[in-house]
Structure formats: structure tokens, C-alpha cells
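Now for today's protein.

===
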Amino acid sequence: MLPPAARWLVTLALLAAGGGSVQAQSPPPSAKSKLMSHHAAGTFEVKLLPQPPADATSAVGRMSLDKTFRGDLEGTGKGEMLAFRAPVEGSAGYVAMERVEGTLHGRRGTFVFQHTGLMNRGAQSLSIAVVPDSGTGELAGLAGKFDIVIADGKHSYKFDYTLPAKE
């Protein structure tokens, strides 16, 4: 039997090679935990700092993320981004992982966002979601979708999420 970390890597390798599908299984909800839906909003500032490429021949750019959130989510985000700009104007893509530490509507803890962004000749799509089971402290059980709004050069957010009810 493979250890859990090795099984995870084998699963990813099979998916990348097109060798089958994997069904994600969620643990059954606890009889005691009722999920409550919430909406958070606020602003954030982001600093992107270019990092050296993984190797000299890589066409993939790397950046560090440093965010400060204000509003219903008060805290900081730290992460890493990989990005590629295609030779066709307006086509690019990025992925990022970001660990957030702070307070969300008064509940303290940490969690991780996964970002996936694409531009197809100027048409944009962006998905930012909480990584399942990444919440800690009072944010354990957090799930949700995070939307970025940019207006007049300022960043704001809308965050629809669920959390188990406080006991």
C-alpha cells in the first residue's frame, strides 16, 4: 500500500496523462455541523514581486503575492503565482496558491485560495476558490468562491462562503 502522499502524486500523474478519472470523495457531514452561507465584501491591496524562473529556459514567469485585506475579511495573503503570456496579443494564463491569515466576520484562522486565470484574445475568465479542508482555527470547514472587482484602479472583493455554525 502506498503512503497517502505517494497515492496523491500517482493520482495527479494519471490525470495529467489522461489515464483515467478520479472521483473526489467528501467526508459525510457531521450530524452536529450545520453549514451557514455568508457573503463578505471589502477591499484589498496587492503587491506582485517578480521571482527568478525555475530554470533559465523556462517561458513561465514566477511572482510572489503579498495582499492586505480589509472589510469583512481582515488579514494578509501570501502566495506564489506562475504565469505565461502567449505570442498572440491578449492571450495568457496564470495559476496561484495563496495562504490567507486573518479574521472573517469575526472568526480567526487561516485558509488557502487556489487561483486560475485565463485570457483568450482579451476575453477573461478567473476562478478563485478555497482549497477544501484548508481552513484552520475558527475557519475550519470553510468553503467558498472569491470574486475580484477592479474599478478606478482599486481592488475590492466579494466572497460567498459557507462555514459550519458555531457551537
Observations:
- The chain has a mean pLDDT of 85.
